[in-house]
Amino acid sequence: MYHTVLFDLDGTLLNTIQDLADAANWVCAQNGWPQHTLEEYKRFVGNGIPKLCERFTPPQARGPQQLAHTLVAFEARYGLHKQDATAPYPGISDLLNHLSSAGICFGVLTNKEHRLAQAVMEYYFPGVFSFVQGAVPGVPPKPDPAGAKALMARMGAVPQTTLFVGDSDVDVFTAHNAGLAACGVLWGFRGKAELQNAGAEHLVASPPELLDIILT
């Protein structure tokens, strides 16, 4: 049984990909750049918004000044439209209710900017998450373990009874770098092969399966 669970956000708790893709393609259109498909954006996300902006920007426009302008434009557009199509994955709210009833402590660790992550979580899960850690200056993003360790310290968690849950190899590597077991979810942006190759200890296809792993 696990006493603490750390969740990734995008692709794990919330299906955010359409809003991310729409904001990115809007920026591309404003600059006359080629736009990308939803499947491409599923590969672009996972390492934070600055890296997402770099990935959807054509190579010839990746100078530091241009990328800075691109980041500002993307964040402004996404900030206005981050809730157009985003929604919790089916079964997530029930999962969280069961974890809370069972006394399991849980939080979020994401590469999404910290204030944005807090706002998104409170909008979709009001009053549910006491611990949300997003990207902040001076703390390296996942898969560096610094954020996970800081969050666990706030939660009073220990590695032996903490599970990290995410949908990408970045999440599996984060877990292992922090000395945690990793559970890969198959409903997210990546897929089974990536999670297996990264060495996830568990794979689940539905929230009830995840609940069984946590409570067993």
Could you characterize what this model shows?
The protein has 216 residues and is of the alpha/beta class. The chain has helices at 17-31, 38-44, 49-56, 64-81, 92-101, 114-124, 146-155, 169-177, 192-198, 207-215, and strands spanning 4-7, 14-15, 87-88, 105-113, 132-135, 162-166, 181-185, 202-204. Helices cover 48% and strands 16% of the residues. β4, α6 and β5 form a beta-alpha-beta unit. α1 (17-31) packs across α4, α3 (49-56) crosses α4 (64-81) and α5 runs parallel beside α10 (207-215). The chain is globular. The protein starts with a strand and ends with a helix.
Descriptors:
Rossmann fold; alpha/beta; 2 domains; 216 residues; DNA polymerase, domain 1; 6-stranded parallel beta sheet; 48% helix
Strand content: 15-25%
Major sheet details: 6 strands, parallel
Radius of gyration over alpha carbons? 17 Å
C-alpha termini separation: 5 Å
Helix and strand string, N-terminal first?
EEHHHHEHEHEHEHEHEH
Number of strands: 8
Strand order of the largest sheet: 5-4-1-6-7-8
Can you name the CATH architecture of the largest domain? 3-Layer(aba) Sandwich
The total domain count is 2
Mean pLDDT: 97
Q: Which structural class best describes the helix and strand composition?
A: alpha/beta
User: What is the CATH T-level topology of the largest domain?
Assistant: Rossmann fold
Full CATH superfamily name of the largest domain: HAD superfamily/HAD-like
